[in-house]
Backbone:
């Protein structure tokens, strides 16, 4: 199979290209090449998508994979390659849904209004609206050759979002670890390697349709305990602090400075609890949590455990909260 990955130098795009090469496919990656290297065995076709696809226009690929968040780029790629592509995978997002609260939603949920006239992805709503427009363009252009995925939190090796990775990093240090006192909060994540494997399999099998590409819903408390089982040194204690105390101390949910990643208010529990069964029935396979945790921690160590993070509490912030608002589990 001849596959074109639009991107292929970082995270999911890179994992897709690597998996396709591993299976013996002929893989081309169209990217600037400034963000990283393509996997060994893949061919880099230098392209700045802002300038179009150039000589790629009109070439035939058995499968195309696009992860873009820019409507014009997606539309231009479809114009250039859609008529001849055998299969088209488009990676969208769970943020396309208008309802962030309802637990157990599926792909028939109400979507945000599509956004075609902006490249602003600074909020979940703007990002989601652009992805809705991109999804519509993909389906209009390639019809039953379209495989549209809506992932939520993607975990595993090479993740640089600092969200999932915060927890293996922090828990591996041991001691008293501050966690949100919301053990029953739903949470979902999908290892990037599992998502990449499904994308390649879908291309091989010509799978079509729209899927929430999420792992099974679990409880946040169980997930953190599972991470601790893999990486926590002896004597580690998970110390739960009430949400109202966290909020009162200026701790943000999910991501950003002074945050607790993966923690969400009830108004956003729907984002991390979509129905995974259609994706699992269609071929998404989920590896054991220990494999994801170990690979994530390896990436964190490569990046530097003491680096300034984009999400999480720094040691001083955590120590202050533990000293004044601790609540043992």
Residues:
């Amino acid at each position: 199979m001849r596959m074109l990955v639009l991107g292929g130098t970082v995270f999911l795009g890179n994992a897709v290209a690597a998996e396709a090469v591993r299976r013996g496919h002929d893989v081309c990656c169209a990217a600037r090449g400034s963000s990283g290297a393509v996997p060994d065995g893949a061919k880099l076709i230098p392209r700045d998508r802002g300038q179009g696809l150039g000589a790629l226009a009109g070439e035939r690929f058995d499968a195309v994979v696009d992860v873009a968040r820019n409507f014009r780029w997606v539309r231009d790629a479809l114009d250039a390659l859609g008529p001849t592509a055998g299969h088209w995978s488009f990676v969208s997002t769970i943020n396309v849904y208008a309802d962030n609260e309802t637990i157990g939603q599926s792909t028939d949920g109400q979507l945000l209004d599509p956004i075609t006239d902006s490249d602003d992805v600074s909020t979940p709503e703007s990002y989601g609206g652009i992805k809705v427009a991109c999804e519509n363009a993909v389906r209009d252009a390639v019809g039953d050759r379209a495989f549209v995925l809506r992932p939520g939190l993607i975990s595993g090796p090479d993740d640089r979002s600092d969200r999932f990775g915060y927890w293996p990093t922090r828990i591996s240090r041991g001691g008293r670890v501050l966690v949100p006192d919301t053990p029953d909060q739903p949470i979902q994540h999908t290892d990037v390697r599992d998502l990449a494997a499904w994308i390649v399999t879908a291309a091989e099998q010509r799978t079509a349709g729209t899927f929430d590409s999420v792992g099974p819903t679990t409880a946040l408390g169980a997930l953190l305990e599972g991470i601790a089982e893999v990486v926590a040194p002896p004597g580690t204690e998970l110390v739960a602090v009430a949400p109202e105390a966290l909020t009162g101390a200026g701790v943000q949910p999910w991501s950003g400075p002074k945050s607790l990643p993966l923690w969400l208010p009830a108004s956003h529990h729907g984002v991390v609890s979509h129905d995974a069964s259609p994706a699992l029935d269609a071929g998404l396979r989920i590896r054991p949590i220990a494999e994801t945790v170990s690979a994530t921690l390896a990436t964190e160590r490569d990046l530097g455990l003491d680096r300034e993070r984009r999400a999480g509490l720094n040691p001083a912030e955590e120590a202050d909260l533990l000293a004044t608002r601790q609540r043992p589990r």
Observations:
- The CA atoms of residues 15 and 196 lie 6 Å apart.
- The first helix runs from residue 11 to 22.
